[in-house]
Design goal:
about 15% strand, six-stranded antiparallel sheet, alpha+beta
Length: about 325
């Protein structure tokens, strides 16, 4: 998968993205004027960069996000930061193994190390690389929550005195318009509903019904445009809204397919059913689900141990062993 595949997934939630490259020298957008990208520009550029393997998004007022950037892989640092600034449903592991917590934008500035003794940046401006981009050491991943949680992000609390927020009067001018908000709400509704519609006109009927519930409703020509856009994504097979999937790096997929096919099958099944932060079982009963013998399942499980899986607890009477994803494994 690439930027062309990921861009529609973010656009479905009203987030404009752009292709970037991540390397030893840092992170660099592959396009100019990226800071001004809206959904239309983001969609248009997706076809021009089919092979880009990383994507970025603007934080701050454009995408209504503020990121708490924890420049440490120490879980204690993240836990302390969330305790001071408030819990949030979305936490990301970066390509270098550090953590980012996402919040709803509330006028925060972009400040690097506002408290010198804490390895934390407040990103209320600029851009960040987003999951599931390829990073320098591993892929960016949602380790808690995901895009479905964007609508319930809290605002940051407990900011240092040096962090200023824009005054309410200024925010009223620069935040997205009411029309844009209603447009995004309707688009997300249409993307979800399109999977259950037989044709465009059925989806348009759904869109008009939902639009009647908006206050105030959009003009009908805008409703038609939104429904047509959602139906276009669906017809092209690009509407992954509500359809979680499994991602593999091409080299990894080639290696597993040629030399470790049972491990590939088991890894695919486990990634499809277990989020990155989940502790789960790979019990012998899974052999029946896969149509395998228990011996075959055990062999495939052992191939994944130490590479993709780590054992959390040993099997006990009436309690199978439990596992979690290794740092470089899991769902992307």
């Amino acid at each position: 998968m690439s930027f062309r595949d990921w861009q529609p997934q973010y656009a479905a939630y009203g987030i404009a993205t752009f292709p970037v490259v991540v390397g030893p020298d840092g992170k660099k957008p592959l396009v100019s004027n990226y800071a001004r990208f809206g959904l239309r520009a983001s969609t248009e550029i997706a076809q021009k960069f089919p092979d880009a393997i990383a994507l970025g998004l603007m934080v701050g007022k454009r995408n209504r996000l503020t990121v708490l950037d924890v420049d440490s892989s120490d879980e204690c640092v993240l836990t302390d930061a969330l305790g001071r600034h408030g819990q949030t449903p979305i936490v990301v592991r970066t390509g270098s193994g550090n953590r980012q917590a996402w919040y709803r934008y509330n006028g925060e500035e972009r400040r690097i190390r506002p408290e010198p003794d804490k390895p934390i940046d407040i990103l209320g401006g600029g851009f960040v690389v987003a999951p599931p981009s390829h990073g320098t050491k591993s892929n960016y991943q949602f380790i808690e929550g995901g895009l479905d949680d964007l609508d319930r992000l809290p605002v940051l609390h407990g900011l240092p005195p040096s962090i200023k927020r824009e005054a309410p009067a200024t925010l009223a001018v620069i935040t997205p318009s009411i029309t844009e908000g209603r447009n995004n709400t309707l688009f997300r509704h249409c993307m979800r509903a399109a999977h259950r519609c037989d044709d465009f006109y059925a989806l348009l009927d759904v869109a008009r019904t939902r639009n009647d519930e908006l206050c105030p409703p959009l003009e009908d020509d805008e409703v038609v445009r939104v429904a047509a856009s959602a139906w276009g994504y669906t017809e092209r097979g690009e509407n992954r809204f509500g359809h979680p999937g499994v991602y593999f790096d091409a080299k990894l997929a080639d290696w597993l397919a040629r030399s470790e096919q049972d491990a590939l099958i088991l890894l695919t099944f486990l990634r499809a059913h277990n989020k990155p932060d989940r502790v789960f079982m790979v019990a012998n009963g899974l052999a029946k689900t896969l149509g395998w013998t228990e011996k075959r399942l055990a062999a495939a499980r052992n191939r994944l141990l130490g590479v993709f899986l780590e054992r959390v607890s040993l099997a006990r009477q009436h309690c199978p062993a439990q596992y979690r994803w290794q740092l470089q494994g899991g769902q992307n």
